[in-house]
């Protein structure tokens, strides 16, 4: 003014009110890290781990929060971080065999996967297979992809054929055997061997199981060839070895039986109408009789099977050895 002039200066500083967002809750893949920031003007920061920077490096899962202060006031925010791995295949689908005519159902455990993709384009966790082959699928989530491959194989039942029904004669044996590795055998008589030796009549059945439990069954009828006699040509009574002490005729299908044994002078030394009664090598066949002399004795046998009224006659010789 007319008297002069005067001036002054004032410094005005200001802060911007704090308002930030740490972001939505998120997932941290194992081995990864990321940075979160709390931007604020002329502020001081305090994180839950006592850090005082405006940013924080996240390397593990947890809940993280920060408070920022300036002249306009304080502001806080937090974020939850969940740890995650690439998809886990557990349990893995094992290589498997299944039986012809069946299907093999696979259910893949979802675990921590968010999606699945099969090599054939399917996106279902459940699949059914009916053929031999290699099969693959991939599990995916935010952290990556894990794949798995397995093989399925159709098994066919073993050929359990025992042959046609047959006859067996006294003293004969029929051998039926199989050679399928890693298979299980179960005969109807309880045996579990791969070989069955048949010496008597009857129905013989077998069930064969493959490693995948595919089963096949077969049976055979073994019948007697009727009247058959087994007549020894020598015996050794009284020699002390307890073997072949009697002259015993054996047979099957015999209904009537008669045997007469003669010495070399034509004298009868033994007679019986019972197939189970054998000659003990005495002069009359009894336990108290005198021992018959070593040598050749002649026998004559009549037997009947009941199939006809006529009897069959067998004549021959047996040697008594002492």
Q: How large a portion of the residues is in β-strands, by DSSP E?
A: over 45%
Mean residue pLDDT: 91
Range of helix content: under 10%
Q: Uncertain runs with pLDDT below 50, 5 residues or more?
A: none
Number of helices: 0
Q: Give me the count of strands.
A: 25
What general form does the structure show? rod-shaped
- What is the CA–CA distance across the termini? 170 Å
Structural class of the helix and strand makeup? mainly beta
What composes the largest sheet?
5 strands, mixed
Give the topology.
Layout: E1 26-29, E2 34-37, E3 44-47, E4 55-58, E5 62-70, E6 73-84, E7 96-99, E8 104-107, E9 115-118, E10 126-129, E11 133-141, E12 144-155, E13 166-168, E14 174-177, E15 184-187, E16 195-198, E17 202-209, E18 215-224, E19 228-230, E20 234-235, E21 250-252, E22 256-262, E23 268-272, E24 295-304, E25 312-320
Parallel strand pairs: 1-6, 7-12, 13-18, 20-25
Antiparallel strand pairs: 2-4, 3-5, 5-6, 8-10, 9-11, 11-12, 14-16, 15-17, 17-18, 19-21, 22-23, 22-24, 24-25
Describe this structure in words.
There is one protein chain. Strand 24 (295-304) and strand 25 form a beta hairpin. The mean pLDDT is 91. The chain has strands at residues 26-29, 34-37, 44-47, 55-58, 62-70, 73-84, 96-99, 104-107, 115-118, 126-129, 133-141, 144-155, 166-168, 174-177, 184-187, 195-198, 202-209, 215-224, 228-230, 234-235, 250-252, 256-262, 268-272, 295-304, 312-320. It is rod-shaped. The chain is mostly beta strands and 322 residues long. The chain is 0% helix and 45% strand. The strands form eight sheets. The chain has a five-stranded mixed beta sheet with strand order 20-25-24-22-23, with no helix packed on it.
């Amino acid at each position: 003014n007319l008297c002069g002039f005067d001036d002054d200066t004032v410094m005005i500083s200001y802060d911007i009110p704090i308002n930030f967002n740490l972001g939505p809750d998120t997932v941290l893949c194992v081995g990864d890290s990321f940075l979160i920031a709390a931007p604020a003007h002329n502020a001081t920061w305090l994180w839950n781990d006592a850090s005082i920077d405006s940013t924080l490096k996240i390397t593990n899962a947890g809940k993280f929060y920060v408070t920022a202060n300036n002249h306009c006031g304080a502001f806080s925010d937090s974020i939850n971080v969940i740890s995650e791995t690439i998809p886990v295949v557990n349990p893995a689908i094992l290589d498997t065999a299944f039986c012809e005519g069946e299907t093999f159902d696979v259910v893949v455990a979802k675990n921590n996967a968010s999606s699945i993709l099969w090599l054939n384009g399917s996106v279902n966790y459940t699949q059914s297979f009916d053929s031999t082959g290699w099969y693959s699928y991939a599990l995916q989530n935010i952290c990556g992809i894990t794949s798995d491959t397995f093989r399925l194989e159709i098994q066919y039942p073993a050929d359990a054929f025992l042959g046609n029904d047959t006859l067996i004669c006294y003293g004969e044996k029929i051998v039926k055997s199989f050679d399928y590795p890693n298979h299980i055998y179960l005969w109807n008589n309880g045996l579990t061997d791969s070989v069955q030796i048949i010496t008597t009549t009857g129905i013989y059945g077998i069930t064969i199981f493959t490693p995948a439990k595919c089963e096949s069954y077969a049976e055979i009828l073994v019948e007697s060839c009727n009247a058959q006699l087994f007549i020894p040509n020598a015996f050794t009574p009284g020699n002390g070895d307890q073997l072949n002490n009697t002259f015993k005729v054996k047979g099957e299908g015999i209904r009537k039986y008669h045997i007469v044994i003669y010495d070399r002078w034509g004298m009868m030394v033994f007679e019986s109408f019972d197939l189970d009664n054998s000659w003990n090598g005495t002069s009359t066949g009894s336990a108290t009789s005198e021992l018959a002399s070593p040598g050749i004795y002649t026998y004559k046998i009549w037997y009947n099977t009941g199939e006809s009224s006529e009897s069959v006659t067998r004549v021959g010789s047996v040697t008594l050895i002492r």
